[in-house]
Design a protein that fits this description.
Elements lengths: L2 H5 L3 H18 L4 H25 L9 E8 L4 E7 L1 H20 L7 H20 L3 H10 L1 H11 L4 H34 L6 H4 L6 H18 L8 H8 L2 H26 L1 H28 L3 H22 L2 H32 L10 H4 L1 H14 L6 H16 L1 H26 L14 H19 L2 H17 L4
Antiparallel strand pairs: 1-2
Length: 496
């Protein structure tokens, strides 16, 4: 199927609205919890199947887009319904569908308002896919804000003891940055209209807006306020550990695996191309914040008494590594950042699945109350060990290839930055090995009330394990679709 053929059928719209259609079906069949579970699972599997079909059949057309849709929406204000999928957004859509399947499976036995719960998971799917496909700024903003609502509810209703505090903190942090971005979008829209006589929110058109350096810096900082919170880049990370600690298992999977990736995606798709001079000026600052966050988060992670907070801080550290690759501003480092972003989505989600399974068996997230998992749960422990090693960047497992490419690319342009970052990799090994030692080995602190892995848990963990190993041993299938979008995005940002 070529891109022209795909344009004859709104395939991207189908991908985008299928999860929301699943929400409507869940509400129709709300009296049958089992039907809602199956609907949520089937819907996400269908989205994954369509995404895989595109991956195997679509060819890049003009502008590097595999598929592109553009329809006039609110013509009076120049707002279009514009969706585009290149290799990068394809991988992020596939990651979304896969992790949504995982989120449904690990929540299969949830008994508190399950219909509402699975409806929120499906709504999140539409929000994530919309962010990764939207090419009109207003359309992008709508999906960007839509992510807030179901995630806020998941944390605030199904979370642990301090769930309301964590949900409100998450909401205020993310909303504050988003409102600044909205103001910048409106300002850019008005300036473009004054210059050209055409008022539009289309990304490609707004890239041509002539801005003074001061205007560009102001708009860029407003956009970055929204994206830095979502990454989360130090010092805008304070909401994340609380959100992860209190969130249910599915909420943590979507937070670490998907929501954090929307921040990085926003930087490279919108902030850098729209404001290239400001972006270039900000690179040293981004690098400093990334390196500081890398070390700070790793040091704090080592001190955490709660396993979910430990892994949450590890995400801050890993995403700092991703931003460092962006700040290096060359092809190799950017490819490494994109690869690590995808692979971290898999490994971090896998870690939070493991933590959810441990809590189900022990009733606790406190490291002091855990230990001796290997004695009674050898299968679970084996997966825990695998995903922990993948998270710390062990060669042959998922995160390693992305980290190496970032270091190689960064060393080529900024050798000092790369040399400092290497120490951060060592610190990741220290806190992850502490986690492994505390949970798997040692005396058994609490009796394990459940048997070793059941069938549904095997169905969750085996695909995650296979992906972690495959992406570590053979990352080329991810690098191929990433390469052309990265080249185009760097050129738009002013790379010679």
């Amino acid at each position: 199927m070529t891109s022209e053929t795909a344009m004859n059928f709104p395939l991207l719209s189908l991908l985008l609205w299928l999860p929301l259609g699943g929400v409507l079906l869940c509400l129709i069949f709300r009296k049958s919890v089992e039907s809602c579970r199956l609907l949520a699972l089937a819907t996400n599997l269908l989205v994954l199947a369509i995404g895989l079909g595109i991956a195997f059949t679509a060819d890049a057309g003009s502008g590097g887009w595999l598929i592109y849709e553009d329809y006039s929406w609110i013509e009076q204000f120049g707002i279009h319904y514009t969706l585009g999928m290149d290799g990068l957004s394809l991988l992020l859509v596939l990651l979304t569908a896969f992790l949504q399947v995982i989120a449904v499976l690990i929540s299969w036995r949830i008994d508190y308002h399950p219909v509402f719960f699975f409806s929120l998971i499906l709504m999140l799917g539409t929000a994530f896919i919309g962010v990764f496909l939207a090419l009109d700024l207003i359309l992008f903003y709508l999906f960007w804000e839509l992510m807030l609502i179901p995630m806020f509810a998941l944390i605030g209703i199904w979370g642990l003891e301090r769930r309301v505090y964590a949900a409100v903190k998450f909401f205020l942090f993310t909303l504050s940055g988003s409102l600044l971005m909205l103001l910048a979008m409106i300002g850019l829209y008005l300036l473009h209209g004054e210059q050209t006589g055409v008022y539009t929110f289309a990304l490609e058109s707004l890239k041509q807006t002539e801005l003074s350096l001061t205007q560009e810096l102001i708009f860029y900082l407003c956009f970055m306020a929204a994206f830095a919170v979502k990454v989360p880049l130090f010092p805008f990370h304070a909401w994340l550990p609380d959100a992860h600690q209190q969130a249910p298992g599915a909420g943590s999977v979507d937070l670490a695996g998907l929501l954090l990736k929307t921040g990085v995606y926003g930087i490279i798709r919108f902030a850098f191309p729209l404001f290239p001079r400001a972006a270039e000026m900000s690179l040293p600052v981004l690098a400093i914040l990334a390196l500081f966050g890398l070390f700070y988060a790793a040091a704090v992670a080592y001190q955490q008494p709660d396993i979910k907070r430990l892994v949450a801080y590890s995400s801050v550290s890993h995403l700092g590594f991703v931003v460092l690759g962006l700040a290096a501003w060359n092809q190799t480092a950017w490819e490494g950042s994109m690869l690590l972003m995808i692979n971290h989505g898999v490994t971090s989600a896998a870690m939070f699945v493991m933590l959810a399974l441990v809590r189900q068996r022990t009733g606790s997230n406190e490291i002091s109350k855990l230990g001796g998992l290997w004695q009674s749960q050898p299968n679970l422990s084996a997966f825990f060990l695998l995903f922990s090693f993948a998270s710390l960047g062990l060669p042959g497992l998922a995160n390693f290839a992305g980290e190496i490419l970032i270091l190689v690319g960064t060393f080529a342009s900024k050798p000092l930055w790369a040399s400092i970052a290497v120490v951060g990799v060592l610190m990741a090994a220290i806190y992850m090995l502490r986690l492994v030692q505390s949970v798997i080995w040692g005396p058994c602190c609490e009796p394990f009330e459940k048997q070793d892995l059941v069938t549904r848990e095997w169905l969750v963990l085996i695909p995650l394990a296979l992906l972690v190993i495959w992406l570590g041993c053979y990352p080329q299938p991810l690098l191929d679709p990433i390469r052309e979008p990265v080249t185009l995005l760097l050129q738009q940002g002013g790379l010679p």
